[in-house]
Design a protein that fits this description.
The protein has 168 residues and is α+β, with helices and mostly antiparallel strands. It has a single domain, classed as Gcn5-related N-acetyltransferase (GNAT) (Aminopeptidase, 3-Layer(aba) Sandwich). It is built from four helices and five strands; from the N terminus they run E-H-H-E-E-E-H-E-H. Strand 4, helix 3 and strand 5 form a beta-alpha-beta unit. The longest helix has 18 residues. The N and C termini lie far apart (61 Å).
């Protein structure tokens, strides 16, 4: 019998940042591939993402999670991450105080393990436990698999972003 790897969602630690940076860069690349005019792709994405999210570690209003796949010997490999934060009232977007799920990404090799759902469920639990009256997220228009996941978790569509580039 072939052992099935187990999946564990936990709070991120500083030593996870290189893996989170790699996954964050993959998230940026995925969005950029869906719409390169809307989503930028910069140099040094892995380092930039690791540095940015490293700054969120330990902040009271921020949650950074990883999904870790554990093999037979118990050693873990980070295969996904989620980042969320409590946000105050946003007059610009007419959005009252909420929890915001900013990022969720799972390496394609681990998507069949349910890591995305597990990360989202844990993020929802933690943000609600921190007092969020609602959780809001945005998803790329072309990312139908993510939209199906979010809808299955009870999210509903509320806004449609539209973009127009300057004519050249």
């Amino acid at each position: 019998m072939i052992p099935t790897p187990s999946l564990h969602v936990r709070s991120a630690r500083p030593e996870d940042l290189p893996s989170i940076g790699r996954l964050g860069a993959a998230l940026v690349g995925h969005h950029h591939s869906l719409d390169p005019l809307r989503f930028f792709k910069a140099e040094h994405l892995e380092e930039g993402y690791a540095s940015f999210l490293g700054g969120e570690l330990g902040r009271k209003r921020s949650v950074l999670l990883v999904a870790e796949q554990r093999g037979e010997g118990g050693a873990g490999t980070v295969v996904g991450y989620a980042w969320g934060r409590l946000e105050g009232r946003d007059w610009e977007n007419l959005l009252d105080a909420c929890g915001k799920l900013h990022d969720v990404y799972v390496d394609p090799s681990a998507r069949s393990l349910g890591a995305g759902r597990a990360l989202c469920e844990e993020m929802l639990r933690r943000l609600m436990d921190m007092g969020a009256p609602r959780v809001v997220l945005s998803t790329a228009a072309g990312n139908a698999p993510a939209q199906r996941l979010f809808e299955s978790l009870g999210f509903r569509r509320t806004m449609i972003e539209m973009t127009r580039e300057r004519e050249t």
